Amino acid sequence: MDGLGNMSTCTMHDLMHDLAGWIAGEKIIVTSSLTILKNIPSKTRHLFIMGDGDQREEDHVGDGLGNASQVRTLVCWKTLTRNEVQQVINNFIRLRVLRFVCRDPDLDWSILDACTSINFDKLKHLRFLAFNCEGRKGLPNSISNLVNLQVLELSASKSLEELPKDIEKLVNLKHLELDAAYAGYGTHMPKGIGKLKFLARLPMFIVGKRSSSIDELKGLNALCGELTIRDLGDAESPRTGVYVLNEKQHLQSLVLDWGRYYDVDGDVTSLSIHHEGIWEMLKPHLNLKKLAIQRSYEVVKIPNWLSGLTNLVEFSLQDCEQCEYLAPQIQQMPSLKRLTIRNCPLLKGIEEEDCEWPRFRCLADLRIHSCPRLTRLPTFPTVEGELKLVAVSLAPLARTMKMKMRGESVHPLSKLTKLSLKKIDDDFESLSYHDSSICLVSLQELRIVDCCTGVKLPSSLCSSASLTEIHLEECEMVEYLPPLHGLPSLKELTIWDCPNLKGCWWKKKEREDEEWPRFPCLLALHIRDCPNLTRMPLFPTVEMLKLERTSSEALVRTMKMQRTALDRPLSNLEELELGGMNELEFLPEEGLCNLTSLRYLEIYDCPKLATLPPAMRHINSLRGLFIRDCPKLTIRCRKGEGEDWPNISHIPLIRLDWTFLQG
Predict the structure, then answer these.
(1) Residue 280: phi, psi to the nearest 5?
(2) In this structure, is residue 541 part of a structural domain?
(3) What's one Pfam family here (predicted)?
């Protein structure tokens, strides 16, 4: 299911697939060779040719095709030349479904005449056509003669720029599949496309001087699913009272992309009136669930009809460089659950905001990227999915955490499960509110990336008892972590690229023997590029441990710790990776004896590590040992002659400097 509740994919059980194939018999043939085209069984109606790659000479299509006229479906994933495609079309005249890939290395497709390259005229019965002519910018006009065609799929044609000129002849066309991500800016829609009354699937519509008018959309009321309208900045001045989208009740998702800059005689007033008219004619039906506005460089206000979209679930505003305020109606939409604002450098907040009382009553997912001036956003206490802030101020978050809910029992952000903060320049101390611990009681994942904050992170972000994952990455200024030992649910901890990180906040009277255990439920720990991190809580319960270019002190201390006979630190460890640890000279033998669950051990770039102790013999669970760029250790672990070989010879799989000694 997709985000709007529609079924996107489905699967068939292998046994049901085999049963269907057995019942079908020769009616359906699946093969990997083109030679089947020379001798097609008379009962065959559906033919699937799978695979790709270099074709052998005998695999090419021959002059005679056996029983080709009886085939109704031909799906060929092997690459064909233009002549082979034409021969197939001329022989399979009763096809209903055709899919193929065409590439002719001997011809320059970019200069070929689109009208004469491939002729589809004989396929009068064709209902489904999907093909990719690599390097082609246009399509053969003969496609327009397929009057029974219902599906035309061109989503794989990355270089496509033009559709057939007489596309209005395809009166039965229901699905026109185009990929907006691949199409170039030269792509335009042919005039007459608005006459396809049954067209239900049109992912992309391009307006502009070369293409059909935006008025062409008015008659396509059968459209459903998603629609992207591109280059709206080039649209002609609309006629008064013309609405092109308001009757499309089955349309669920709409993207309005204004594209490149457009000017109207250099007159700012005319430009504003021009855009207001376009906004008005784009008013969608009330059933719309998803709306995105992109690259609106001139328009500074969101259209007033936005407040009438009572069923809107998701709204995004992207690359609107001149937008300063959001329309106040946006905070009153009753069904809005996901809000994304990206790359709006002048955006300050909600227009005419007169109070801090929350308006986003149903908002569950909020993501804000690269909006440095955005400081006045209405509070969002109901967010329960992901809150992602990138290159923005922390002021809206701080205000939300401090707000009072006016008699309501639910605290702000008490349902938030994932918090991501990236490229934040504000001091995190603004989040150190005395009641903040009641705000994040459901927080499960915390991710802080590339934040130039002070030397400390507030304990309010790391005090939730529900936290299961913490990721700290590329924070060069962070020197200490808040006390993490109060996190009984923490299972995954990742610390990357924090060169100044030294350790955690320690109590003055805290002693080393009071550190057992700090992470009672930690299962995965990954520390990379933290050379100064020497003091951190111990991790006796982990199952996966990766230490790269960091100190080995915490590892050695954890392996040595033992209070009672029942305390076996790292007894659950299954994967251990040690890399770039220049000071590591040995692995504690007494600690290795506790690694009774270890399955894979990888050691690399540890120049001082000289030996693997005899305790390795007792790790019977070990299945793989990988060593590279450890010159001293490499000599001692050589098969049959190294001093440490008896300690590791029982391991089934051993790789030494990319050479497999066993396995």
Answers:
(1) -65, -40
(2) no
(3) LRR_R13L1-DRL21
Residue 615 lies in a domain: yes
| CB contact at 8 A, 252 and 276 | no
Q: Total domain count for the chain?
A: 2
- Among 335, 338, 298, which residue's Cα sits nearest to residue 315? 338
Please calculate the CA angle 584-589-590 and round it to the nearest 5 degrees. Answer: 125
In a domain, 377, yes or no: no
**Residue 238 in domain:** no
Which DSSP string corresponds to 101-127?
A: EE--TTS-GGGS-HHHH---TT-TT--
Of 656, 659, 528, 530, nearest in space to 602 by CA: 656
Question: Of the ranges 8-17, 63-72, 141-150, 584-593, which is most confident?
Answer: 141-150
Last residue of a domain, one of 120, 152, 177: 177
- Identify the bridge partners of residue 526 per DSSP, sorted by sequence position: 494, 546
For residue 306, the one-letter residue type is L
Which range (142-146, 152-156, 433-437, 451-455) has the least confidence? 433-437
Put residue 41 in one of left, alpha, beta given phi > 0 → left and psi -120 to 50 → alpha: beta
556 exposure class (CB count in 10 Å sphere: 0-12, 13-18, 19+): middle
Q: Which residue has the tokens 């649910």?
A: 489
Closest by alpha carbon to 579, among 547, 608, 626? 547
pLDDT of residue 630: 93
**Beta partners for residue 48, in sequence order:** 30, 75
| Alpha carbon 506 to chain centroid, angstroms | 39
Task: State the Cα–Cα distance between residues 298 and 429, nearest whole angstrom.
Answer: 37
Contact 72, 45 (CB under 8 A): yes
Size (the chain), residues? 663
Q: Residue 71 sits in a domain of what CATH number?
A: 3.80.10
Q: What is the mean pLDDT of the chain?
A: 79
CB 306 within 8 A of CB 350: no
The domain boundary, picked from 126, 149, 177, lies at 177
CA angle 93, 96, 97 (to 5 degrees): 110
Question: Is 60 exceeded by the pLDDT of residue 183?
Answer: no
What pLDDT does residue 509 have?
40
pLDDT at 543: 92
User: Per the structure block, which two tokens stand in for 408?
Assistant: 């309501």
Which residues constitute the domain of residue 161? 1-177
Residue 512 has a pLDDT of 45
Give 236-290 pLDDT, tens digit per residue. 766 666 788 989 999 999 999 887 554 444 454 555 666 777 888 888 999 999 9
Residue 132 · residue 157 · CB < 8 Å: yes
User: Residue 340 is encoded by which pair of tokens?
Assistant: 């994304």
Q: Please give the full DSSP string across 210-221, using - where no structure is assigned.
A: SS--GGGGGG-T
Determine how β-strand 128-133 pairs with β-strand 73-80: unpaired
